[in-house]
Amino acid sequence: MNENDILKALRKVQEPDLKNDLVSLNMVNDIIIDGNKVSFTVVLTTPACPLKDKIKNDCINAIKLVNKDAEVTIDFTSNTTSLRTDKKDILKGVKNIIAVVSGKGGVGKSTVASNLALAIAAGGAKVGLMDADIYGPSVHIMFGVRGERPVMQDVNGKGMIVPLERYGIKLMSIGLLVDEKQAVVWRGPMVSSAIRQFVSDVDWGDLDYLIIDMPPGTGDIHLTIVQTVPVTGVIVVTTPQLVALADAKKGIAMFSQAGLKVPVIGLVENMSYFTPKELPDAKYYIFGKEGGQKLASEFDIPFLGEIPLVQSIREGGDVGIPVMMSDDEISKNAFIEFSDNAIRGIAMRNAQLPATEVSAVF
Ligand SMILES: Nc1ncnc2c1ncn2[C@@H]1O[C@H](COP(=O)(O)OP(=O)(O)OP(=O)(O)O)[C@@H](O)[C@H]1O
């Protein structure tokens, strides 16, 4: 066996999402061959790649076809893909900016954004969570950092706000900077300037993903964000009720419109079914069934998952310990499945679509 044999074999191994082989995608490095022993590194598109095991098995099988006695050792590393083509004056070290949106209030957008951030970070990625809901911040409550204040730090001669860090996630929320009742009466320009500060005056450092918890609906803050940073993609949260689905359509339409061109990574349905604590295997579809899936197929966007309505999710948010940090395996699995689909969607978006440009349309 020589290096060419190995490369030839690995050319037959597909990255399942990107639909191309590992060698063409430049995902194979450091091939070392010593008799029957072969080792190499596969560079994944994200540290949290859920396809790692499949890729590993496919590589071993492909090499065994060349030499059935081969002893294959595969190391995995990652280089999260990023399509930033802007000058990176702001959010310099951030590879992907993901906005979590909802048409309607109260559908659990902040809950979903918080647990998504934690689920992605659990896979090894560096993640930040920015609460852009200036009028109704909740991230500081959900992460149990209410009342804490971030400090300032000098970065290259500029005073920058250091985001708080909890459960490995860098956090920023207006609830950490001012009294919660204060921002409620702010006028539009103050809100826009707070949002700009969140991206330009906060030292986010190097992140694979910055998740932005957007306010509900489609308003000024959304426009400020898309005018300020190149949003990699949008995740839409809905609940199964018809009224929520109708509003979710507006959210999808806003980001898909010609002027914005921010791709929709997919749609997640929250509170899909009720599972009582004492009956963990039961699923009661009290708000209707598969509304989110139907909406996703109507708009031809990926359906990213169903999150159950369970008491522990609500309790976790209230006490500042998100359910991803609890031992509720059923809820955690739902969030992990959703997050796996979301990061695969982001990697596919980066492979298939042009970079998002900061919008100057409005
Ligand atoms: N899957 C769920 N199971 C149980 N409770 C949930 C679930 N998702 C959200 N909740 C609860 O519903 C309430 C609203 O959730 P959340 O604040 O995340 O919604 P939101 O859409 O961000 O709201 P807003 O419109 O105010 O921004 C919270 O008390 C939260 O704990």
UniProtKB/TrEMBL annotation:
**Sites where the protein binds ATP:** G103, K104, G105, G106, V107, G108, K109, S110
Set out the biological process GO terms recorded for this chain's protein: iron-sulfur cluster assembly
Spell out the InterPro entries in the cross-references: FSCA_dom_sf, MIP18-like, Mrp-like_CS, Mrp/NBP35_ATP-bd, NUBPL-like, P-loop_NTPase, YlxH/NBP35
What SUPFAM superfamilies does the database record attribute to this sequence?
A: Fe-S cluster assembly (FSCA) domain-like, P-loop containing nucleoside triphosphate hydrolases
Give one GO term, molecular function aspect: ATP hydrolysis activity
Domain (MIP18 family-like) ranges: 4-73
What PROSITE patterns does UniProt report for this protein, alphabetically?
A: MRP
The subunit structure is: Homodimer.
Q: Kindly provide the name given to this protein in its UniProt entry.
A: Iron-sulfur cluster carrier protein
Source species: Ginsengibacter hankyongi
